[in-house]
Each structure stands twice: as C-alpha cells, then as structure tokens.
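ERR on first pass: missing label on line 2. Operator R.T. fixed the label and resubmitted. Corrected input:
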Amino acid sequence: MSPAGEQTVNVTIRNEITDLATVTEAVDRIGAEVGIPSKTVMQLQVVLDEVLSNVIKYAWPDGGTHEFYVRINVQNGGIEITIIDDGRPFNPLDQSPPAPAADGRRPLPGGVGIHMVRQLVDSIEYARFDGRNQVTLTKCYGLEPPLRPGGE
Amino acid sequence: MATGLTMTESRNGGVCIVSLTGRIDGSNAADFTTHLNGLISSGEKSIVLDFADVLYLTSAAFRALLVATDEAERKAARLALCSLATQVRELFEMGGLLDAFTILGSRDEALARLG
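pass 2 clean. output:
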C-alpha cells in the first residue's frame, strides 16, 4: 500500500498512434486518484502526446511494430515521467524552435510541440545508453501551502 | 472514450458551426483534418469552430488548423475559432499561434463577423 498521494504507473505501448489512448487514460486515472489539479493533468496530457507522438513517428524509420515504455511517478506534489525506447538516437531537445512567420504569413507548424513541452514542464532531460533513448520530464503541481507561523 | 473528440455541426444562416467536444491530440488529429478539409471542399464558405467544450489541444491539432486555414484561403472561405477556455487559449499562446487564426470571444461574435 503506497502512501496517500504517491503512485507509480508503468505502461508499455506500441509505435501505433492509437496506443496513445492507453497513456491518456492512465494519466486521467492517476490524476483523479492522487488528486492532481485538472489543469496540471491537462498539461501533462499535452506533454505526453507531444513526446510520445515523436517517438512513434521518428524512432523506427524502417517501420515494423516496436514497444516502448512510459513510467509515471507521482509523489510529494511532483510528477516524474520517464520514456524509454530502443529506436534510433533522438534527442527532443535538439529540435529547432519554431521558425518565425514570414511577414504577413502564418507560421509553419514545425517545432511547435517541443516548444510547448519546454514551457509546460519544470525540467526535461535526455540520455542515450545501452542503445536506448531515455527522456525524463518533471513537473511540480504544488501541495497546499503550509500554515504560516503566527497565522490564524 | 477518454480520448474522444466529438464534432457536431449546426447551421446559422450561411455559417456552418462545428461544436468541438473533448480533446484534440495525436490520436484524432487526422480525423479532425479530414473533417475540416471535407467541409471546405464541399463548398462551405463560412466556418466557425466552437471550442467551448475543448479540454485541450496539442501541436497535432495546431497543424490541422493551419492546414485547414490555408485550404480555406485557397477556396475563398473563412474560418474562425471561438469560445476558447482560458487553459486552451494559453496553449495557443505557448505555441506562438494566437495571431495565426481568427479567434473570437463568443459564438455570437463569430457569427457577427462571418454571417
């Protein structure tokens, strides 16, 4: 039995865009069970959609069915998400920021996803080891502020 | 279904209103694109996308909206978004895309602009 407010979920999904739903449901569930604010849950969903979509689209250019791993750990008002895949080396932090729109033109969509991820998490780290990519994201959602000494 | 996006169409004069409910993400952005491009190629000239019940959207949805806006321009059609919740508006802002679309506060404003 884990302490209240602490929970870990491990999900293995395939490189199929339809498998994203498994993670979306897991995040909704853990958010409701641990009591994560709904705005934070929404932001996590955006972050995971961006990062996992990239893995699905780019990690295995030769195609075929592959599995990869997502771990979501929640404790002490913080969330840590780890994504591990054995696809080709891919550091999401290397992606260029969105190109500025030309005068009077709409911006191009490239790079918008990771640009949003950077703003939605507190930290993002990439490591490559044993032929695997590992992306670790953290986000604090804050606990109730402690009572102020001397306060009522 | 947790990942569902529902698109419901209604009409106000010459304006086609698409009410979006749920989330627009990588799992359904292709359907969203197909739906929007279908409306434009069927000859709709004024389309309002009502975001009132959209929980969130991701860059896959922004891509769909950019493609549809370009397509609308080519077909001399107008596309407007309305009724974005604060948290959804923030995502447009983070994506640097608030100015890329016609975004109006309410459905009435959108109808007044396009009607």
